[in-house]
Q: What sequence folds into this?
């Protein structure tokens, strides 16, 4: 049974054009072809990157955050309540008004007290500002080095300047060492993101992020096994170029350098629009959709590659909509947070919870603070 499944999975008609077999892709005469076994190191690479990330965040990002005065906001813990805690864990994090009234009867608490409990409990599960800064710093650093590595691997290749050369001699295209290491690092990075989803900052587009990581890993593994390496390196470099600026804008915003952060975000938006709304669909996907059929008949690998690229493009349209909303706020109002963020809610003092007026100095401080931002949104990006 397993032998039949393996034979079907490696059926030449799934992976290779007509009249091309695996025997045609045997190493020899100085030529080395990509093989799925080359990617076995992706998992060890992912664990190595997780270790590097831990060391980076602890010994570089955290001291930098301390030097820049980036600290987490003070959070008040919720009052002990087994009834509300069980409801929060098993039923809902945001109860409706009718559900709040029902919980009031079970706990003999006022509605305001129950609402304050849920607000504080939700804040306990949200990542602090310093964790967000460390995560953005790590991603920005990786994307920067990955993009520079991609440029070194591509700058002297003819298919960077003439896309038809991507398919010159396909699939009998020898693998280059620079391509191998570029693929290995990118696959290791996205695999490490999947492995770290449970302790990374949770965002509203969590499901879309999971789909993106899985689609990216599937596309990378398939393009490697089918020797679509040239177009794969172009797609990776296209993505990394904009991600550097996005993470850099977050870092500047956490450091309270608002003008620099807004300026970098505007530049990021332009680069994002150019690379993912113009270059990717009209150049790269056009290259994978039109040029191959000029050389061979379409086969499963051809359709699968383009399907995965279309999935990525749909996600880019979704994120492009969120980014356009943020850009509008940045230019015409005040950008207070990332549209994707599950942001921290405003907390209140104990006097306000009990219905008493807070001290005069506290009132003046809160009036000044809340006048600068809308209630219910933390003054951070992402």
A:
């Amino acid at each position: 049974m397993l032998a039949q499944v393996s034979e079907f999975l490696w059926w030449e008609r799934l992976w290779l054009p007509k009249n091309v077999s695996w025997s045609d892709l045997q190493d020899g005469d100085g030529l080395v072809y990509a093989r799925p076994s080359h990617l076995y190191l992706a998992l060890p690479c992912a664990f190595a990157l997780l270790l590097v990330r831990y060391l980076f965040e602890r010994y570089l990002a955290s001291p930098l955050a301390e030097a820049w005065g980036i600290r987490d906001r003070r959070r008040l813990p919720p009052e002990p309540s087994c009834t509300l805690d069980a409801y929060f864990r098993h039923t809902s994090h945001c109860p409706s008004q009718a559900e709040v009234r029902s919980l009031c009867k079970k706990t003999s608490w006022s509605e305001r007290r129950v609402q304050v409990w849920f607000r504080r409990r939700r804040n306990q599960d949200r990542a602090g500002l310093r964790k967000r800064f460390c995560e953005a710093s790590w991603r920005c650093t990786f994307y920067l080095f990955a993009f520079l590595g991609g440029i070194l691997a591509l700058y002297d290749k003819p298919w960077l300047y003439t896309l038809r050369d991507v398919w010159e001699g396909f699939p009998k295209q020898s693998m280059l060492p620079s391509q191998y290491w570029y693929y290995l690092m990118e696959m290791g990075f996205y695999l490490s993101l999947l492995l770290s989803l449970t302790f990374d900052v949770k965002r509203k587009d969590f499901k879309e992020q999971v789909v993106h990581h899985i689609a990216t890993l599937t596309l990378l593994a398939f393009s490697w096994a089918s020797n679509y390496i040239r177009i794969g390196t172009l797609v990776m470099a296209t993505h990394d170029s904009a991600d550097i600026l996005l993470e850099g804008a977050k870092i500047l915003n956490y450091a309270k350098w608002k003008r620099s952060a807004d300026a970098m975000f505007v530049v990021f938006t332009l680069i994002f629009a150019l690379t993912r709304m113009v270059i990717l669909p009209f150049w790269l996907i056009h290259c994978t959709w039109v040029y191959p059929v000029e050389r061979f008949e379409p086969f499963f690998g051809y359709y699968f590659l383009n399907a995965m690229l279309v999935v990525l493009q749909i996600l880019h349209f979704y994120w492009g909509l969120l980014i356009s909303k943020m850009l509008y706020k940045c230019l015409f109002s005040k950008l207070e947070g990332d549209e994707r963020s599950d942001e921290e809610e405003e907390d209140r003092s104990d006097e306000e919870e009990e219905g008493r007026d807070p001290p005069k100095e506290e009132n003046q401080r809160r009036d000044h603070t809340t006048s600068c931002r809308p209630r219910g949104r933390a003054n951070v990006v992402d």
In short: Confidence is low (pLDDT under 50) at residues 349-382. The two ends are 49 Å apart (CA to CA).
